[in-house]
């Protein structure tokens, strides 16, 4: 138990164990027992006094645990420090202040939350501005900024003008801010400093340059908000301060800090779109490639965040998604989210389905075109719009208008109840009530909610909508962008018809018609000015050079039209005027392609591809083709018309032939002209004719003309045109995925363009200009009247219907928090997966290491088993050698015993010797107990050895079997292998008999039938030998040998050891330098021919030795009939005196298995051993071959 010391345990176990550990870790203390014991006792004292009262002074970390991560060692140290602190309740605020600064300094936000803020459940501790300042300025402190904001830190109280300037001054010499923002965007030099008016001048200019928002921040507004004297409300002040701090983080390339601040924004979609645009525009001043790629990735990331937020809201509550696209917040210069996305050219955001639906609603304005079915006949939308606009009364059948007066009180109640049900289902954060009890600040939200619900198609079927007054219907109808689109288009077509007639009118034209066309054209030019000015005010960063050039060209055309046709100035001739009109007509016809056609979902993406094909691919094609055209045209004309005069016609003909070859193949000149006669070559010295004809108009057709024409047409027609098709195909395939998103982005500008146009098309827009002029006069009159009365002139107020309520801001802030937590969860899951992969990799490495260790251990065990087997085999060999003498004696006794001629049983002893004779092949060691095949031995895996046929003596090569194991390994088991007649006698194709029967007899006296192993070859019947294959034996299975032991008693006078000496015949092999018993391999069907070959042919004759009688007869004939044995009798008196012996003994002493070092598991020797002993005089030595 804690606090109780077990003396016996400490003395008998703990102290000795600590001493042993100390000796292992500190080798110097091994021999110094006194110091080691003092060290040990101090360790025990530390553990004994580790906990005193509520303080813990000792914390133990097990570094071998998976939960212990030494990367967070600072957190463990801080927790250990806080555990050892003495709590002072009288000065708790200073203690928390000190602890929080310590955690901030060590960058341990989790410790700050668990050890500092949780100790203050009443939330009395307030975070100082210095803490937030340190968290913002110090790197990698984003978690503390998030923590402080979650604790309720008010940024607008912190962000005063002085502190904002100080923040920029502290990062003034930071590389990113200095090179990109200060020197690049603002254009200051490296030695320039931040001045006191930095906010009103430089900062606003920097924000305007990166976001297109003018006068975004004001020092006076920041000061008032910090003092609590809010210009609008506290939430707007806090929102503006967070946005400014986010901008500061972006300008200093603190993207992670910007993401942290974005998480606490009330308008996350607007802020993400602005940050994406800001970073993308800052990349224009970046020269470092890696930094530029990083910033582009950050810009895409913020754009994806905005799109993902919109998608999440659209899936959850589509009404709020449309609301956020409609909101015109004063904090963003009254720009909607769609306007910000268009300003930043965020194609992915604008191509979202919610933005496209919103864009469709904007295109229809406050008019809903009803789809009424008339059976199989349906009226197109364009015709409906035109009929409603001009005939007025079809509006009652085909249109529905959105106005506040259309909604009845009963409908308000239904909608409010409908929204209340959504509130109960937790799908809407704004709770609505009846109109009588609705607070004033929530009416705007109710109206906005009704607007979103009303445009749901199901809502039109559910509620009865009343039409507004007729004048309001006409006003709304002609104000809708879709009405402008179709009316402008139909009037433009009428204009083109008049223009075409004016161009076709013969001679100098019709004055009235020209006057109408000229006035109409001037009104079209004025019509282009109005939307261009409004678009310029709204999108300041967009390039309007092409638009300005278009307006200038149109006014120049009007001026030339007036001079040429209307005014009697005669400055331009009639033909030139007609050419100018033709150019204008072409331009105005082509103009319809990019004004009216791109809004089509079919033609829009296609026209964008065509635009890139023309402006990119075709230009690149012409850059290559122009060289071929110019060079080919000049060369062909110079070769075919060498004498053509140098005049304007020469250039015309050259240009005509070269350029029109793109569309046709002019080869008529190569046919020649029959009227042309060759020149006589008789011309004066003043003239030189290079051609063949006197007439310079005659073409010279020859070899070089064909060569230059062929190369020109091959390059132009076959190569370059094919290249153009390939470029078009590559562009189409490359843009197939993104062309739809690009078209959706361009569709926004088309809709906005028609929204900004006047309600009446040209030439009716004269009425609109008159109305605008009257409104301007009225405004001047009201302004002058107010000035006379001393009143402030009224300013144009922005619509309050497109503002968020407090609940809307709360919803979007909560959605941003959920999105961030979701992303963090995904990152954690990804980190867990990566960590799991690392752990799996570590486990795999450990597994591989242990596997290698196990394999090494198994190898060691196998080696030990092998050594033990070898030792066992060697011991058995020693035992066999020790028993050799007794074995030889017993064998000799058995051979000399006439009553019993059987040898003792044979075991593979010599057959297990290593190495294999004549090689270095080592046998698998086989102990005696594993010799029989009946004993199972799983680890038995001997090597295979087979002597090649070419290594045998030439006389035996024809009798050598094929290497079956090698053939099976090379060709596979399916390959046909040689077939041998095992356990039988057969005749080979040469007519030689082959005896593959076994000479080993069983207990009943019959021949032994040997078995075949799994490889289909014979198996050694006497057991394992430690070697597979055929070895050095010529045949698989039994190899028959016949040997003869020829002996006689010693004939010399001297006797050895008072006994009779025994002499025998041996065979000397010079090639191997060895002695052996006479005999050899039985290759054919007559086994005794081997014995016959031992003797000279003149003594054996030509007869074949078929059976044993031939051997017995031959050796008996070798006995000498009359011999003087007197000398022999003196030497061996006892033998001749004691018994009468036979003259010669010829017996088979053994027939069967022969234990020989050449034996293998699949080939063995079988021997028929003869013993021939002479007791009488003989002449065998005279009949033997020289080698015996």
Automatic annotation (TrEMBL):
Pfam families: NUDT9_N (PF25969), TRPM2 (PF25508). One of its GO terms (biological process) is metal ion transport. Keywords: Cell membrane, Membrane, Transmembrane, Transmembrane helix. The chain crosses the membrane at residues 374-398, 485-505, 511-532, 544-563, 575-597, 618-640, 703-728, 762-781. It comes from the Eukaryota. InterPro entries: NUDIX_hydrolase-like_dom_sf, TRPM, TRPM-like. Residues 139-352 form the TRPM-like domain. One of its GO terms (cellular component) is plasma membrane. It is found in: Cell membrane. It is a multi-pass membrane protein. Its main location: membrane. GO terms for molecular function: monoatomic cation channel activity. This is Protein ced-11. It comes from Trichonephila clavata (Joro spider).
């Amino acid at each position: 138990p804690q606090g109780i010391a077990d003396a016996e345990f400490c003395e008998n176990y703990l102290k000795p164990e600590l001493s042993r550990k100390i000796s292992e870790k500190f080798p110097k203390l091994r021999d110094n027992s006194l110091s080691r014991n003092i060290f040990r006792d101090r360790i025990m004292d530390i553990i004994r006094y580790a906990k005193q009262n509520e303080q813990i002074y000792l914390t133990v970390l097990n570094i071998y645990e998976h939960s212990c991560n030494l990367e967070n060692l600072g957190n463990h140290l801080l927790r250990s420090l806080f555990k050892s602190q003495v709590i002072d309740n009288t000065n708790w605020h200073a203690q928390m202040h000190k602890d929080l600064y310590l955690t901030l300094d060590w960058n341990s936000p989790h410790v700050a939350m668990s050890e500092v803020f949780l100790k203050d459940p009443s939330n009395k501790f307030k975070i100082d501005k210095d803490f937030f300042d340190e968290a913002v300025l110090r790197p990698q402190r984003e978690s503390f900024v998030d923590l402080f904001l979650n604790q309720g830190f008010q940024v607008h109280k912190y962000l005063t003008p002085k502190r904002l300037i100080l923040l920029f001054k502290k990062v003034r010499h930071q590389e990113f801010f200095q090179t990109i923002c200060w020197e690049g965007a603002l254009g200051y030099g490296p030695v320039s400093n931040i001045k006191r008016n930095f906010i009103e001048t430089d900062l606003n200019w920097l924000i305007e340059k990166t976001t297109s928002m003018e006068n975004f921040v004001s020092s006076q507004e920041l000061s008032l908000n910090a003092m609590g004297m809010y210009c609008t409300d506290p939430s707007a002040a806090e929102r503006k301060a967070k946005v400014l701090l986010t901008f500061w983080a972006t300008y200093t390339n603190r993207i992670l800090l910007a993401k942290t601040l974005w998480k606490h924004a009330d308008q996350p979609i607007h802020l993400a779109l602005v940050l994406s645009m800001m970073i993308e525009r800052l990349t224009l001043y970046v020269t470092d490639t890696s930094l530029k790629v990083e910033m582009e990735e950050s810009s895409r990331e913020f754009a994806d965040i905005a799109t993902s937020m919109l998608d999440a809201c659209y899936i959850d509550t589509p009404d709020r998604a449309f609301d956020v696209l409609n909101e015109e917040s004063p904090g963003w210069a009254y720009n909607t989210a769609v306007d910000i996305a268009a300003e930043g050219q965020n194609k992915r955001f604008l191509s979202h389905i919610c933005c496209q639906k919103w864009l469709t609603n904007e295109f229809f304005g406050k008019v809903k075109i009803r789809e009424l079915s008339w059976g199989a006949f349906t009226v197109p939308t364009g015709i409906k719009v035109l009929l409603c606009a001009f005939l007025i009364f079809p509006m009652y059948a085909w249109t529905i208008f959105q106005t506040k007066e259309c909604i009845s009180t009963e409908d308000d109640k239904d909608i409010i109840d409908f929204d209340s049900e959504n509130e109960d289902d937790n799908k809407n954060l704004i709770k609505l009530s009846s109109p009588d009890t609705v607070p004033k600040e929530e009416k705007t939200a109710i109206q906005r909610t009704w607007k979103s619900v009303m445009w749901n198609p199901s809502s039109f079927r559910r509620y009865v909508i009343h039409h507004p007054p007729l004048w309001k219907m006409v006003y709304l109808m002609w104000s809708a962008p879709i009405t402008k689109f179709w009316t402008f288009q139909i009037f433009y077509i009428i204009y083109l018809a008049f223009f075409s007639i004016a161009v076709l009118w013969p001679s100098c034209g019709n004055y009235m018609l020209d006057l109408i066309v000229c006035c109409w054209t001037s009104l079209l030019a004025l019509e282009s000015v109005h939307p261009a000015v409004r678009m310029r005010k709204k999108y300041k960063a967009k390039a309007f050079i092409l638009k300005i050039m278009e307006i200038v060209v149109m006014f120049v055309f009007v001026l030339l039209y007036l001079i040429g046709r209307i005014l009697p100035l005669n400055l331009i001739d009639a033909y030139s005027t007609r050419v100018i009109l033709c150019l204008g007509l072409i331009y105005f016809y082509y103009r319809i392609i990019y004004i009216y056609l791109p809004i089509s979902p079919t033609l829009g993406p296609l026209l964008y591809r065509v635009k890139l094909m023309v402006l990119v691919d075709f230009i690149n094609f012409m850059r290559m083709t122009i060289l071929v055209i110019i060079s080919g045209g000049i060369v062909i004309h110079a070769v075919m018309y060498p004498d053509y005069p140098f005049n304007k016609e020469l250039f015309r003909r050259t240009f005509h032939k070269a350029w029109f070859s793109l569309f046709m193949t002019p080869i008529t000149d190569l046919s020649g002209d029959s009227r042309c006669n060759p020149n006589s070559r008789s011309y004066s010295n003043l003239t030189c004719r290079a051609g063949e004809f006197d007439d310079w108009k005659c073409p010279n057709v020859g070899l070089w003309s064909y060569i230059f024409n062929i190369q020109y047409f091959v390059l132009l027609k076959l190569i370059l045109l094919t290249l153009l098709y390939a470029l078009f195909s590559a562009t189409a395939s490359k843009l197939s995925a993104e062309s739809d998103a690009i078209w959706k982005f361009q569709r926004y500008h088309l809709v906005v363009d028609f929204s900004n146009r006047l309600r009446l098309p040209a030439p009716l827009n004269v009425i609109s200009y008159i109305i605008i002029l009257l409104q301007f006069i009225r405004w001047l009159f009201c302004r002058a009247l107010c000035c006379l009365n001393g009143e402030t002139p009224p300013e144009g107020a922005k619509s309050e219907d497109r503002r968020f309520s407090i609940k809307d801001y709360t919803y979007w802030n909560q959605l941003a928090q959920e999105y961030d937590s979701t992303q963090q969860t995904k990152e954690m899951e990804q980190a867990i997966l990566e960590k799991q992969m690392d752990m799996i990799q570590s486990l795999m490495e450990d597994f591989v290491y242990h596997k290698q260790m196990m394999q090494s251990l198994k190898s060691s065990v196998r080696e030990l088993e092998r050594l033990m087997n070898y030792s066992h085999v060697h011991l058995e060999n020693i035992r066999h050698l020790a028993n050799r003498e007794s074995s030889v004696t017993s064998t000799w006794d058995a051979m000399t015993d006439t009553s019993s001629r059987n040898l003792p049983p044979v075991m593979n002893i010599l057959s297990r010797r290593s190495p294999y004779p004549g090689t270095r092949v080592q046998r698998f060691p086989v102990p005696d107990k594993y010799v029989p095949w009946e004993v199972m031995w799983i680890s038995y895996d001997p090597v295979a050895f087979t002597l090649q046929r070419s290594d045998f003596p030439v006389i035996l090569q024809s009798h050598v079997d094929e290497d079956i194991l090698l053939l099976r390994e090379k060709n596979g088991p399916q390959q046909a292998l040689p077939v041998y007649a095992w356990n039988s006698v057969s005749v080979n194709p040469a007519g030689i008999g082959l005896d593959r029967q076994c000479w080993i007899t069983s207990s009943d006296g019959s021949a032994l039938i040997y078995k075949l192993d799994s490889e289909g070859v014979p198996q050694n019947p006497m057991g394992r030998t430690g070697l597979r294959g055929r070895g050095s034996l010529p045949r698989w299975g039994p190899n028959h040998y016949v040997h003869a032991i020829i002996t006689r008693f010693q004939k010399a006078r001297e006797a050895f050891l008072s006994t009779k000496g025994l002499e025998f015949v041996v065979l000397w092999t010079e090639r191997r330098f060895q002695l052996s018993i006479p005999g050899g391999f039985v290759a054919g069907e007559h086994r005794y021919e081997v014995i016959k070959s031992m003797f000279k042919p003149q003594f054996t004759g030509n007869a074949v030795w078929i059976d044993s009688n031939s051997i017995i007869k031959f050796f008996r004939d070798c006995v000498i009939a009359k011999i003087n044995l007197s000398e022999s009798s003196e030497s061996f008196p006892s033998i001749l005196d004691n018994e009468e012996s036979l003259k010669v003994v010829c017996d088979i002493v053994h027939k069967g298995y022969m234990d020989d070092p050449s034996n293998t598991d699949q080939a063995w020797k079988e021997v028929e051993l003869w013993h021939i002993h002479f007791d009488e005089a003989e002449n065998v030595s005279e009949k033997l071959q020289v080698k015996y």
